[in-house]
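Structure in, sequence out. Go:
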């Protein structure tokens, strides 16, 4: 159903590139169906050379030519970019945002208020459909989880098409928008918690005298194996941990220390902070919105 559709990736940085790579590699679309924009011409030349896609520095041209517009800029520049391009959005398009904290209502209000003509007026199902997606960086290896929700306009069929785009980089799941800031903190930010854990373990190995390359290899394969195990078994993480924790053994000594230090509480507080920051980014944009209007 995506045949002959143009997918415009506006702000093709890390996540945008991951999506482009996935789309092209999984043959979800032909490279010529993808159009990417950002300001750096050098970076765009790299994207064109690597993936065979079309590129432009002109966001307006991208919006005018795209059936699906993936907004992949940072949350802080979203309002500016929407205002710049508002006049180019048109019927038949689906707008997909991956920006942390930015609500579908914010994007809709920006498009309804600025694009003029038929999209203005009383609420109805006539506006441009906006889908909000929260992928994560394992998109780079086709293993993202991308929860998504649909705003007030559009059909479930359009939401499904948007999810089909993100299925190029992993798994998708539809969720209520009210959960998206929490999801941003949990799975959007999630890989960073795991990477941080890896850093700590590698450093511990080195501190105890192992060569760094060995410590790195041990930790990397351990985390990979643990992730595979938790994915392929019906046992919970707690049960898997209990299985390797014998009384007075080595794992028991490590877990007792972590518990005494409040490791889980600290981790959970960190996730709560990330969720609060996502909400804050959304409010900052809403504030900008009301000041502007
Ligand atoms: N990284 C993650 O783990 C992750 C996960 C889920 C969602 N997200 C969301 O994904 C979005 C992008 O994150 P990212 O990590 O990919 O950031 P990023 O690498 O900085 O990508 C954003 C890109 O936007 C471009 N840009 C900035 N201003 C622009 C403008 N006016 N017009 C066109 N392009 C512009 C920048 O390129 P130029 O400087 O060349 O313009 C940059 O490459 C964010 O909203 C973030 O919340 C990120």
């Amino acid at each position: 159903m995506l045949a002959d559709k143009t997918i415009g990736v506006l702000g093709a940085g890390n996540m945008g590139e991951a999506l482009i790579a996935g789309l092209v590699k999984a043959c979800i679309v032909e490279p010529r169906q993808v159009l990417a924009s950002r300001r750096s011409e050098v970076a765009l030349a790299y994207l064109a050379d690597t993936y065979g896609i079309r590129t432009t520095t002109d966001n307006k041209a991208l919006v005018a030519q795209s059936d699906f517009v993936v907004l992949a800029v940072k949350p802080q520049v979203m309002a500016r970019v929407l205002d710049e391009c508002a006049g180019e959005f048109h019927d038949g398009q689906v707008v997909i945002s991956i920006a942390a904290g930015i609500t579908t209502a914010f994007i809709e209000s920006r498009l309804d208020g600025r694009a003029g003509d038929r999209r203005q007026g009383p609420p109805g199902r006539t506006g441009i459909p906006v889908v909000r997606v929260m992928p994560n960086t394992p998109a780079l290896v086709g293993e993202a989880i991308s929860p998504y929700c649909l705003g007030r306009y559009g059909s479930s069929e359009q939401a499904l098409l948007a999810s089909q785009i993100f299925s190029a980089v992993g798994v998708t799941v539809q969720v209520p928008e009210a959960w998206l800031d929490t999801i941003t903190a949990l799975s959007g930010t999630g890989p960073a918690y795991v990477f941080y854990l890896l850093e700590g373990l590698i450093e511990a190995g080195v501190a105890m005298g192992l060569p760094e390359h060995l410590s790195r290899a041990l930790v990397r394969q351990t985390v990979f194996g643990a992730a595979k195990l938790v994915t392929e078994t019906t046992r919970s993480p707690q049960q898997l941990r209990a299985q390797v924790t014998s009384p007075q053994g080595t794992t028991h000594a490590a877990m007792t220390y972590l518990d005494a230090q409040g490791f889980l509480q600290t981790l959970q507080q960190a996730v709560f902070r990330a969720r609060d920051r996502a909400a804050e980014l959304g409010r900052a944009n809403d504030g900008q919105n009301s000041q502007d209007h």
